[in-house]
Specification:
CATH superfamily of the largest domain in chain A: Response regulator
Strand content of chain A: 5-15%
Oligomer: homodimer
Region (Disordered) (chains A, B): 1-34
GO molecular function (chains A, B): DNA-binding transcription factor activity; transcription cis-regulatory region binding
Helix content of chain A: 40-55%
CATH architecture of the largest domain in chain A: 3-Layer(aba) Sandwich
Domain HTH lacI-type (chains A, B): 33-87
Keywords (chains A, B): DNA-binding, Transcription, Transcription regulation
Protein name (chains A, B): Alanine racemase
CATH class of the largest domain in chain A: Alpha Beta
Radius of gyration of chain A: 27 Å
Number of strands of chain A: 12
Chain lengths: 363, 363
DNA sequence: TGATCGGCTTGGAACGATCCAATCGTTGGT
DNA sequence: ACCAACGATTGGATCGTTCCAAGCCGATCA
């Protein structure tokens, strides 16, 4: 349930009592309660009921009590469509549904965002788009026809034109992901990837590792460069060497090859990886040469996917619930007070390392 | 955000072209076009415009043309909230967002459903619920306040009380998943698990395997029993023995143990598994004893998850796009013509085996 | 020619909420 | 005791669409 208000509903206690399978009364018979019917019952006017709900300070306590009772008895709930027609607010947030790469990250974000939005009286409405241009085209429809109040964007990248369009259309938005170029005139929430790899690196240093390599994606990826930077800074801070990083795209075969090359050339006693999939490549390469992850070479991944838990891989976990609830907060605040657009908030949240066998053996 | 893609900038083609970043006109100045403004422009009445859109056969061709032109010029789009207020139809479908088990199944279904619904002029709205009772409680809010037209349920199970409640409340629904007990007075779409394991079994028979075992979940799981039945039927049809099935919950360690036991006692030359995770247990057990999957023992999984593709595991894939589009069709048809509730459609779609190395070597 | 019929078209009412201006009832000041 | 000021409450208008019953018009038929 969503509402924080005193809604009765009841319906719970009573046993099914046999007979037709509805503890729920078929509301078809009873017409839906409206402001007027509540007002009639409480012996006040329509507007007073509305005030009780929206501007309680205008109503005398005694009156408010009577009205609340009537609301509860009738099971009244304001009708969104009517509110929306009058106020031009839908309390609907748009979210583009992505085919995630199998890491449950988007899934979990989606779940958390739905809950966080719910707490604020908003709902998440989905849309799809083949690419950014299609998404930009979809905004017209989403705004004009469905009247969404705001948008949550999830995969920012350099040269992202979406936020500029949204700003131009006056549609509030937040991004999960920082803007990777200058255009940051919108609020955003992101996870500090560099802090994550840095924490992983420090953990390895603390475990006695001295030759810590990095396996990342090809240079030029914003997210990837960020994660690399964290490792580089941490090894430098520890006074350790920073061997040339390995590079691979996110593909099992390719990752395995890159891991092999890295093990051969660098001969590290630990590898920090930019993703769990890359880390799996390292684990596989280690197994193939009869070496044991966590004992011979420590390995860490990134994103704390199911696979990581499955194979005992230490991994950096993103605080997705927090990200989602901040996204919900920022975008709804912007909806409810557009002046905030002038001073957008930016949040960089710290991830946290989940330690498993792959990094906890003796050095 | 996280994104596993190493996205190089690209920056696409078009230069920002300088100037303010909006090809979009700020509609703030021009008030939103309404039926009335379109009517004025076309020189007809409000209702005629509405008829052009909703009941075109009532309007003379020439008039319709004029009206259409006016609609196009003004960029008019009917306002959902107003329509909804009048017609009591929101064109919103509710879907409970689940924390899936890491197999991308729910993700892909979600994406496909959003697209399929879109094609029919509907949108998917998300909600969460801790358990079925909470979900049932949420219906009141979703229906009464958000006015959703229908619900798509995704994880049916024996003793599922949700559909009965929805029927009682008169809220249309479809389930992805057949009802596992008698109460099937609602349309549903499901994937024929038995057909899937049967196909996998026949494939193994065709590849020369003669001692085909089954590794499933503990008895009593509806989905699991179904998948087992397909295997049992197929081995029987081939005149092969049906060894006692192995049983394990969906846990890596446990699956490995069960696989070991199965290999020891049954000594099969092929194993059909009820899930990819169980199949991974078999693969792991094989590797540990120096035997090669696909050559010594053929293995198939179920669900065609990423992991299956990753390790070259043959797996039964569900036709999720089709499931989603049928779900969308069934629920929207029900919304638009409630009489169909008397004769609910039921669809059992056949999955398809994706053959990989784990089952394609010589017997 | 005038009444009848059907096809299009029309304006008014309704959906259920909020905004607004006006009203009512108290209280306080003089 | 009267008026002003203020707080609480009221009825009417409004958002943009669809439903409804009535109206207009030209064509058909007696």
């Amino acid at each position: 349930m969503t509402d924080a208000r005193p809604d009765v509903d009841a319906g719970t206690a009573g046993p099914p009592a046999g007979g037709p399978p509805d503890g729920v009364r078929p509301d078809v018979t009873h017409p839906r309660p409206t402001l007027d019917s509540v007002a009639a019952r409480a012996g006040v006017s329509r507007q007073t009921v509305s005030n009780v709900l929206n501007l309680p300070h205008l109503v005398r306590a005694e009156t408010a009590r009577r009205v609340s009772a009537a609301i509860a008895e009738l099971g009244y709930r304001p009708h969104r469509a009517a509110q929306q027609l009058r106020t031009r607010r839908s309390r609907l947030l748009g979210l583009r549904v992505e085919l995630s790469a199998g890491d449950k990250v988007f899934d979990r974000f989606l779940h958390a965002l739905t809950e966080a939005a719910d707490l604020r009286g908003y709902r998440v409405m989905l849309y799809t788009a083949g690419d950014d241009e299609a998404e930009i085209a979809a905004y017209t429809e989403l705004r004009g026809r469905w009247d969404i109040d705001g948008v949550v964007l999830t995969t920012t990248h350099p040269g992202d034109r979406r936020t500029a369009h949204l700003a131009g259309a006056g549609l509030p938005c937040v991004t999960f992901g920082r803007p990777w170029d200058d255009s940051d005139h919108h609020p955003w929430v992101d996870v500090d990837g560099a802090a994550g790899t840095a924490e992983a690196t420090r953990h390895l240093v603390g475990a006695g590792r001295r030759r810590i390599a990095f396996l990342g994606w090809p240079a030029g990826s914003a997210v990837g460069d960020d994660r690399l930077a964290g490792w580089a800074a941490a090894v430098a801070a520890a006074g350790l060497p920073a061997p040339e990083p390995g590079r691979s795209v996110n593909d099992p075969q390719e990752a395995r090859r890159a891991a092999d090359a890295l093990l051969d050339t660098v001969r590290p006693d630990a590898v920090v990886c930019a993703s769990d999939l890359l880390a799996l490549g390292v684990l596989s390469a280690l197994t193939a040469r009869g070496r044991i992850a966590g004992r011979d070479v420590a390995v860490t991944g990134f994103d704390d996917t199911d696979i990581a838990a499955l194979v005992g891989l230490s991994s950096v976990a993103q605080p997705l619930s927090e990200v989602a609830s901040e996204c919900a907060r920022l975008v709804t605040e912007l909806v409810e007070d557009p002046r905030r657009a002038d001073t957008p908030e930016r949040l960089l949240l710290a991830p946290r390392l989940v330690v498993r066998d792959s990094s906890s053996g003796p050095p």
